[in-house]
Structures
1.
Amino acid sequence: MAESALADPTFAPLLAPALDSVLHIEARAYDHPWTRTHFLDALASGYEAQMLVRDGAVLGYFVAMQGVGEAHLLNITVAPEHQGQGHARTLMAALKRWAMQVAAQRIWLEVRVSNTRAIRLYEGLGFERVNVRKDYYPGLGPAREDALVMYCPLDESEHP
Ligand SMILES: CC(C)(COP(=O)(O)OP(=O)(O)OC[C@H]1O[C@@H](n2cnc3c(N)ncnc32)[C@H](O)[C@@H]1OP(=O)(O)O)[C@@H](O)C(=O)NCCC(=O)NCCS
């Protein structure tokens, strides 16, 4: 069935009972996926975690941390079979709404320099490249991979 014929996706809090579905996505989306412990630690720390669901299926999710006057995106993932349908844009819009609600002035994130899909997504949403963190991520072999640090200022006039 075409995705356009399906019900609209809705947001739900990402909580422990959803972790089996989330970890199944995570394992297929990344060479170095987050573990159950990463997610449980994030939830225990009170980080913001939302998922996009449709008919009981998890389409994607994000996890973000609040800092002083800023928000930090830690994880955004769309299930491989649902990519390319605009779900990441929907998740990023929810991230931005939450960041505004907690009075963040900007959103930070790191992304692998090789992740051109994600970089294109972020740049299309107004994120700017600010720095490169050398050898930030594990690689497939012994060599590590650099992270691009990006940030997006949030417009004061958009704050609730
Ligand atoms: C990166 C990711 C979140 C994008 O999710 P998605 O739902 O496919 O993205 P969307 O359909 O919302 O597309 C949003 C934008 O992403 C970019 N994009 C999406 N698919 C792309 C592709 N195949 N090639 C290049 N850019 C692409 C485009 O800029 C697109 O905007 P456009 O449709 O106006 O061209 C998804 O590919 C993913 O989960 N990847 C694995 C996990 C990951 O890398 N997360 C980011 C870690 S920092």
Note: The beta strands are 10-13, 48-54, 57-67, 70-78, 106-112, 128-137, 145-153.
2.
Amino acid sequence: MKRSFALKNCARHINLRSLSTSVPRHGPQVCVIGSGPAGFYVTQHIIKTLPDAKVDIYEKLPVPFGLVRFGVAPDHPEVKNVINSFTKTAQNPRVRFVGNVSLGKDMSLKDLQELYHAVVLTYGAAQDKTFGIPGEDLENILSARRFVGWYNGQPGDEKLNPDLSVDTVAVLGQGNVALDVARVLLAPIDQLKSFDITQHALEALSESRVKRVLLIGRRGPLQAAFTIKEAREMVKLENCKTVFRLEDFKGVKEFMPNVSRPRKRLIELLTQTAMEPKLELVEAWKKAERSFEPIFYRNPVAFLPSVSTPGKVGAVKLAVTKLNGEMSETQSVINTNEFEELKCGLALRSIGYKAFAADPDIPFDPKQGIIKNSQGRVEGLPGVYCGGWVGTGPVGVIVNTMGNAFELGRVIEGDIKDGTLNSNIRKPGFEEAAKILDNKGVQVVSFKDWEKIDSEEQNRGKPSGKPREKITKVSEMLNIAGN
Ligand SMILES: Cc1cc2nc3c(=O)[nH]c(=O)nc-3n(C[C@H](O)[C@H](O)[C@H](O)COP(=O)(O)OP(=O)(O)OC[C@H]3O[C@@H](n4cnc5c(N)ncnc54)[C@H](O)[C@@H]3O)c2cc1C
């Protein structure tokens, strides 16, 4: 069985090689894997700087834009404006969107290397990091990644069904994703209704009994990983008071003159809110029914079962931590022998995303969680590049990803222009890929097909005044695309 498959594969490769000489030269053929910000920005650079290049963007899902669609919080619609520029790129006659095609499943890296001069891997970081601590498999301990997917319509997350009949949620982690989920849990439902949050999430959130969200982090306020915009939104959130532990701020005010410029305003906001909140906030908080409670210097060591429902999480056990060395914004942290238990009925792990090798031929560094590369050139694979979160690790916002992708674009441009990458050999590109996909019975979704899905989603959103109602089932997307 295996052998016949190998023979078939081999025949196909031979066939491809012969085909690649019969296709007339039409400039560098580049394929980009993943249609998130990294994929689109690298495409923009290639199209701009290499006038005869063609770029095919392969995407696992029938819909484009990666975490701009499935990550960015629904109540931050302005962040999604990048979609306008990505759409223009996708409509460029030299760019082709090839949706519903997954590297590692529908196409192998070897296939793509045969068909294209350059293969650019920008497929993101879509797995979860876990703590690996006792009790982590209890019910109602979820990854923030899937919770975000649930309210943002990520296919596969629509049935997550988080139990929101609980009083307290522990969010473990203090980055911006942690703040996004805290805000979605605590915001008045009327403030979410007009955005593209999924209907199933809206319904569940409107019946939520959650009163407190604890935002637990290992380090102190000086090292907080979230940014000022998100922190300010929490402090000002309607019907919600922010409750800090005053002891967490010991020495912070005195250290203020040494805080680096970009973080100064954030640390000032946290210190002021904790120690001398403005009068109007204090007044508003008196009536608040919900609370947002950042807790610093705590590291989860176990999840404990609920007393009434033992299969479910009932509390999180935290080690009290302390910081090493002199006070600074980058101090490392260690656990002490002191512990604290905090009750919670739902725990959301928000400690980051993780990349993986989508194809066995991709050299992957599991320790750093990235594809092995130097300046975006994938180790040991000439003509294969990587960028965005799969190349840098899952850090930073879209602007950082954009910078990285433009840098990668310059590397590819240089390699093509100086002949490091020989684009004079003829390569068939999508012409041949289409045959492979057709043989496998894969329904390819074009950008025009996506526009049909897009317009259907927008129509479905109209009755409830939302910009769109996202379709969450791939089969339904494919039906619309195919009609
Ligand atoms: C919850 C969350 C909220 C965020 N909010 C903000 C924000 O408000 N503002 C901001 O500036 N930044 C925000 N970011 C950061 C921003 O989303 C990232 O910087 C950016 O999306 C990374 O881009 P990328 O292209 O590397 O990865 P992604 O955006 O993840 O894109 C990767 C694409 O590859 C596709 N793919 C995966 N596997 C395959 C495969 N095998 N074959 C083909 N395609 C594949 C995926 O479906 C996806 O479309 C947020 C991130 C998260 C996680």
Note: Residues 33-39, 58-61, 66-67, 71-72, 76, 79, 102-104, 122-124, 126, 148, 177, 180, 353, 358, 388-389, 396-398, 401 surround flavin-adenine dinucleotide (CB under 6 Å).
